[in-house]
Amino acid sequence: MVQIGFDVGGSKIAAGVVNERHKILARKEIPFPTGTSYKIVAEIMAVMGEELLKSAKLDLSSLQSIGISVPGDIDEAGGTVLNAHNLQFHNVPLQKEMKDYFKEIPVFLSNDANAAALAELYAGAFRGVKTAVLLTLGTGVGGGLILDGKLFNGGQGHGVELGHMMLSHNGSICSCGNKGCVETLCSASWLIREGRKAVIEYPNSLIFLKAEGSIEKINARLVIDCARDGDAVAMDIFTRYVDQLSSAIASCANLLDPEVIALGGGVSRAGEFLFAPLRKQVEEKSYFHVPYRIVPAELGNDAGIIGAAMLINNK
Ligand code: BMX
Ligand code: ZN
């Protein structure tokens, strides 16, 4: 039997047919149809699902379940996307809508970072682990927890939002409306913002040179690469970033004393240049001065698809 996992995000919908060994047999990706109603989005997803089965040379009789991962506040039990502002989904009964197309096939919904943590549990950095924390460092900061060897979906089914723990009491405004959340200080967006700000004051920095004088070309990877190349302006940004992120991770460590902390999202691709100073600072800052295993998440862009496909196993 196979599952279909959908990873629905603000810029694209990625989907795949996933087998029992957590391998993606066929995949498909389309831009997110911004501005269309959720009913149209569900219809598009249903077509994607049928096409995927066809390309995997399977039919509905092989399909055991459908899983959907969505950024934002999800009511898993009710099958509703309560709030996903970048999809403009508010109180959207996505589960029911999909079931109308796939009838008796069960459909599961989950927050994107929760699904990614589940994927790491089955097929990545959390295999065989009982207590783990995943932080995805992207446009926002997503979070997922593994407790007692299972994905923890919050005490009241709202999941966890580690990106919205507060790190700075009077910090800048977050996408959630509060101030100083982890997301405002540890996302790739923070690195981009700081990089773009810095070149106005320091037009001679390597950041501006590498961006060929175009502010829009400054992304998180470029800032990190410039720091790696020894540019002082980029290094200052990167040093502050590591300081902020290590505080967020140390707080998670103090709360849970986890066996593994994995970092996903674009920023995590910085490799040891990021992980080495991060481990050192987390060890210094955490209450239990132990060398926590802080590792890159293993599934990269596939985490959303695989995690969504694995939701059936988490019931
Ligand atoms: C936001 C929040 C989280 C999500 C995280 C990562 C919304 C729409 N999203 O903090 O639910 O897990 O972003 O999302 O409220 P990404 O877009 O960076 O992948
Ligand atoms: Zn927030």
Note down, in words, how this protein is organized.
With 315 residues, this protein is α/β, with parallel strands linked by helices. It has two domains: 2-120 and 302-314, ATPase, nucleotide binding domain (Nucleotidyltransferase, domain 5, 2-Layer Sandwich); 128-297, ATPase, nucleotide binding domain (Nucleotidyltransferase, domain 5), CATH 3.30.420. The protein is 38% helix and 23% strand. It has ten helices and 13 strands. The chain has helices spanning 38-55, 94-102, 112-123, 182-186, 188-201, 206-210, 220-228, 232-256, 272-285, 303-310, and strands at residues 2-8, 12-18, 24-31, 63-70, 73-75, 80-84, 89-92, 107-111, 132-137, 141-147, 150-151, 260-264, 293-296. It has a five-stranded mixed beta sheet with strand order 3-2-1-4-8. A five-stranded mixed beta sheet has the order 11-10-9-12-13, sandwiched between helices. Helix 1 (38-55) crosses helix 2 (94-102) and helix 5 packs antiparallel against helix 8. The longest helix has 25 residues, at 232-256. It is globular and about 60 Å long. The protein starts with a strand and ends in a 5-residue tail after the last helix. The site of 2-acetamido-2-deoxy-6-O-phosphono-alpha-D-mannopyranose has 16 residues, from helix 3 and strand 10.
Structural class: alpha/beta
Instruction: Examine the coordinates and then state which fold CATH places here, giving the name of the CATH topology of the largest domain.
Output: Nucleotidyltransferase, domain 5
CATH superfamily of the largest domain: ATPase, nucleotide binding domain
Based on the coordinates given, report the CATH architecture of the largest domain: 2-Layer Sandwich
Count structural domains: 2
| CATH class label of the largest domain | Alpha Beta
Extract low-pLDDT stretches. none
Largest sheet: 5 strands, mixed
Number of strands: 13
Instruction: Provide the residue-averaged pLDDT.
Output: 96
- Distinct ligands, ions and cofactors found in the model: 2-acetamido-2-deoxy-6-O-phosphono-alpha-D-mannopyranose, zinc ion
Strand arrangement within the widest β-sheet reads 3-2-1-4-8
Rg from C-alpha positions?
A: 20 Å
